[in-house]
Design brief:
The complex is a heterodimer. Chain A has nine helices and 30 strands. By secondary structure, chain A is α/β, with parallel strands linked by helices. Chain A folds into two domains: 5-275, Spore Coat Polysaccharide Biosynthesis Protein SpsA, Chain A (Alpha-Beta Complex), CATH 3.90.550.10; 292-388, Hexapeptide repeat proteins (UDP N-Acetylglucosamine Acyltransferase, domain 1). Chain B is α/β, with parallel strands linked by helices. Chain B has two domains: 5-259, Spore Coat Polysaccharide Biosynthesis Protein SpsA, Chain A; 285-374, Hexapeptide repeat proteins (UDP N-Acetylglucosamine Acyltransferase, domain 1, 3 Solenoid), CATH 2.160.10. The chains are: A alpha/beta, B alpha/beta.
């Protein structure tokens, strides 16, 4: 299939409520489900429609993202014919927009990428709406509707996102249910049981519509975001439609939702929805040995990546690569990231260990389902439960 | 940088003693240890030893093997300083070039080796499970100023008659070669690993082509010819784990040994990693009803049953109330509910239907072939 899409991944995403996990990484490179990072999901969707290239806009240095994405070969983005990952780092939307010196770059980078690609459409995506989108059916919908812009949404309960969520909901036309009539903050809805049509901040639009928006955005100092483009389309009489997504979705906006998204994978329906019913989810391959479970290991409803050694008891938990869990250790309802080491007689319940945490013999930590204890990267947890934080 | 050594991995053998496991794939491509194929060990040894120019000679049922090796990128062998190249028989003006033996396979690929113009050629087999630093052997070869160095391994005297054994003098120079001798004079078994000075070997092979064309096999023909001509042949002793997994029983027992976390092969050693062409798949999911002890499980598995002392390769599904014991299950097999498997090897993609029992014993390991279906409902009504 010759692809018609120029993808733009807007990875400058709100991360304050995800600290300390986002102290040194953007939301896009948050580890997920034993062996993935959140950015694998949009990349895998793009891979399934054979998008040859992608433009990334990231804040900060993006070290952990570069390390993960490399040449983009995992998702078929490394071709020497029209391929490539075009990364634009140190993007800090608001500050830069206020300083005219940098404005030029922000808009010009978008312009150059889109105008030079041979695509007919631009696809805008982020990484904090954890989902697995079939872009081929989105594209069919978009073309059938003869749409200028199509936004992906999902019907959710108000309670599924934060009370003070920064996300927005779509208002659909009463005459044509597919047509978007407006946009409003989700905080406008107050009853937690009310449903709303969450703007998943992913959209496809024609190259022309995109470039037109870009000129206006440059003039008026607007972000290149789905929210703003929806408003722009209404002002300019572009046709704009909503495409309903019905698969698994979790909005990753704080530690609670991050924890819940991982735990959701222990439910087979969710796991299958995200990993088996749609595009295969591709991640950077690492060389690994199978995981060894010891003679006295006790496992109950848990997921593991390769390269672990498990001698203790693990229940309702997710364990990433290269983790060692000693005999008589007991892990419940927890997320243990790569390279962590757990000694004998440790008990962890409702805990998230970031990468490379060392838990000493006898240590006990217990959080709650709503507030799991998060231990930062490279920390050491001592027998009395004190945590020496990593640098 | 000029290529000093070209490594030729002979991976064309059928491995007929593996029965239905090598019916459709070559022995070096047979899965091993949950996440590997047999040839990964030789390829990883090349990569870890800095032997970056590798020819992989394939012939018998090469599809999966060629696909697995690809351009060598899984082993880092696709760089500017070396590459992995798949060498298959081809036809030419001189006729078809099928390989009639180990030395003949090298003769047929003279052009490939000459293009690299190396000083040494290392001959390896793609059939063995071991970790070995080939660079050390090459250093030894240079030190001895040998024209041929043979990798040997001390075996128990009672087993020596099953191997080709090398008799050496006090300086480790090989003075006699006995193929599967009744009364072995030495317990140094040939590992099928050779380092030749390329110009010398090439001369033997080319001259031979003009004469009686008898030099088709390294063990049977080339080494005796070298001995007759009083070449400097030395034995390089390797000590460590080395296993030929040429039979069902040895493939099974090698996997059972591999399972032991104290095994000397130490698959988790970060300084000598065994690389493979890993699939992109999901985490391993052990459900509420799973019970897994003393076993290796690989990514992509879904386990609802009991697994004891077994290796389960990637993307295997095991249903409820099934029990797998002392077995090696190859990738992509699907095992239903209420299945009982003991002392067995289950082939890639096999389907074991609900309620089936597959019970082997130590001297008769049960084998289910690739994509084979066992059990299932019958239309009794």
């Amino acid at each position: 299939m010759r692809t018609k899409i120029a993808p733009i991944l807007n990875l400058v995403e709100e991360n304050e409520n995800l600290k300390p996990l986002t102290n040194r990484r953007p939301v896009a490179s948050l580890p997920f489900a034993c062996r993935y990072r959140l950015v694998d999901f949009p990349f895998s969707s793009l891979s399934s429609i054979e998008a040859p290239s992608a433009a990334l806009f990231i804040s900060g240095s993006g070290h952990s993202l570069y390390d993960h994405i490399r040449s983009g070969a995992t998702w078929g983005l490394e071709s020497s014919v029209g391929g490539g990952v075009f990364t634009h780092s140190h993007i800090n939307l608001k500050a830069e927009l206020e300083d005219p010196q940098y404005q030029g770059n922000y808009y010009d980078d978008h312009y150059h990428y889109v105008s030079r690609s041979h695509a007919e459409y631009v696809m805008i995506m982020g990484s904090n709406m954890l989902s697995n989108i079939r872009l081929d059916s989105l594209l069919r919908f978009h073309e059938k509707k003869d749409s200028d812009a199509t936004v992906i949404y999902k019907k959710i309960k108000r309670s599924e996102v934060r009370e003070d969520s920064i996300h927005s909901a779509l208002i659909m036309s009463e005459k044509d249910n597919d047509k978007i009539e407006g946009i409003r903050p989700v905080t406008d809805t107050t009853d937690p049981n009310d449903s709303l049509l969450l703007n998943m901040e992913m959209m496809i639009l024609s190259k022309d519509a995109f470039l037109n928006y870009l000129f206006k955005a440059k003039k008026e100092n607007l972000d290149v975001s789905v929210k703003h483009i929806i408003t722009y389309c209404h002002g300019s009489e572009h046709n704009i439609y909503g495409y309903e997504y019905t698969g698994y979705l979790k909005v990753i906006e704080d530690i609670g939702s991050y924890y819940q998204a991982n735990m959701d994978m222990l439910n087979e329906d969710n796991f299958n929805s995200l990993f088996y019913r749609s595009n295969p989810v591709l991640t950077k391959l690492k060389n690994s040995a199978p995981t060894y479970y010891g003679k006295h290991a006790e496992i109950n409803n848990a997921q593991f990546a390769n390269d672990c050694e498990v001698y203790g008891k693990v229940e309702n938990s997710l364990v990433f690569r290269k983790v060692t869990i000693a005999e008589d250790a007991h892990i419940e309802d927890s997320i243990i990231m790569q390279d962590s080491c757990i000694e004998e007689d440790v008990h962890l319940k409702y805990v998230i260990l970031d990468k490379h945490v060392y838990v000493k013999r006898g240590a006990k930590l217990e959080g709650t389902p709503d507030e799991p204890i998060v231990v930062a990267k490279d920390s050491v947890i001592y027998e009395d439960g004190t945590i020496e934080e990593g640098e | 940088m000029k290529t000093e050594t070209v490594a030729m991995i002979l991976a064309g053998g059928q491995g007929s003693r593996l029965g239905k496991l090598t019916k459709h794939i070559a022995k070096p491509a047979v899965p091993f240890g949950g996440n590997y194929r047999i040839i990964d060990f030789a390829l990883s040894n090349c990569a870890n030893s800095g032997m970056n120019d590798v020819g992989v000679v394939t012939q018998y049922q090469p599809l999966i093997l060629n696909n697995h090796v690809g351009n060598g990128s899984s082993w880092g062998l696709n760089r500017h300083n070396g590459e992995a190249t798949i060498l298959q028989p081809y036809s030419s003006m001189e006729g078809e070039k099928f390989f009639k033996g180990t030395a003949h396979a090298v003769f047929q690929n003279i052009d490939f080796i000459d293009k690299k113009n190396p000083k040494y050629v290392m001959i390896l087999s793609g059939d063995h499970i071991y970790k070995m630093d080939y660079q050390k052997m090459l250093d030894y070869h240079k030190e001895q100023e040998a024209t041929l160095t043979v990798g040997v391994m001390p075996v128990p005297w009672e087993d020596a008659s099953r191997f080709g054994v090398m008799n050496t003098d006090k300086t480790d120079r090989i003075i006699e070669f006995q193929e599967k001798p009744e009364n072995p004079k030495s317990n140094l078994a040939s590992m099928g690993i050779y380092i030749f000075n390329w110009d010398r070997l090439k001369k033997y092979l080319v001259d031979n082509q003009a004469k009686d064309r008898q030099l088709t096999d390294f063990g049977h023909h080339v080494i005796p010819a070298y001995l007759r001509n009083n070449e400097a042949i030395f034995a390089y002793s390797f000590e460590g784990y080395w296993k030929d997994v040429g039979t069902i029983e040895s493939l099974w027992s090698a996997n059972m040994e591999f399972l032991d976390p104290e095994h000397e092969l130490d698959i988790r050693d970060r300084n000598w990693r065994v690389y493979s062409n890993n699939p992109n798949t999901t985490p391993q999911f052990l459900t509420e009803s799973a019970k897994v002890t003393d076993s290796m499980i690989t990514d992509g598995c879904y386990i609802s049953g009991e697994v004891v002392h077994s290796i389960i390769s990637h993307n295997v599904k095991i249903g409820k109330n099934s029990s797998i014991k002392d077995s090696f299950v190859m990738p992509n097999a699907v095992i239903g509910e209420n299945v009982k498997i003991e002392k067995a090897i289950i082939g890639e993609g096999a389907q074991i239907h609900d309620g089936t029992e597959i019970i082997g014993s130590d001297d008769n390991i049960e084998v289910v072939g690739y994509d084979e279906e066992v059990g299932g409902y019958t239309d009794e009504n």
